[in-house]
Amino acid sequence: MNALSWKIRRHAKRQGVTYSFLFMKADGDQLRERTRLIDAGEIRPVVDRVFSFDQTREALEYAEKGHAKGGKVLIAMT
């Protein structure tokens, strides 16, 4: 991952911030801990684009085609 993220880490360093990958798995305890860190402002996820639930197919196509370069693609459930 270091090789893949060298550009963004260099950019982050110039901005005086740190950048790291967090790997997730479907684990309730891990998800609760990530939520706590986000709510506390200790980590800030990068969001590329938000799609409505009705746009799920478009969201998947967007992600599969590699358009999401700067962050996560989210599907809103509301």
Tell me the fraction of residues in β-strands, as a range: 5-15%
Number of domains: 2
Number of helices: 3
Percent of residues in helices = 25-40%
Distance between the termini: 33 Å
What profile does the largest beta sheet have? Answer: 2 strands, parallel
Q: Can you tell me the overall shape?
A: globular
Structural class: alpha+beta
SSE ordering: HHEHE
Compute the number of strand runs: 2
The value of Rg in angstroms is 14 Å
Give the mean pLDDT: 85
* Low-confidence regions: none
As laid out across the biggest beta sheet, the strand order is 1-2
Oligomer: single chain
Question: Summary?
Answer:
The protein is α+β, with helices and mostly antiparallel strands and 78 residues long.
Quick tags:
78 residues, alpha+beta, two-stranded parallel sheet, 3 helices
Question: Can you give a write-up of this model?
Answer:
By secondary structure, the chain is of the alpha+beta class. It has 2 domains: 1-45, no CATH class; 46-78, no CATH class. The protein is 40% helix and 14% strand. The chain is built from 3 helices and 2 strands. A two-stranded parallel ribbon has the order 1-2. It is globular.
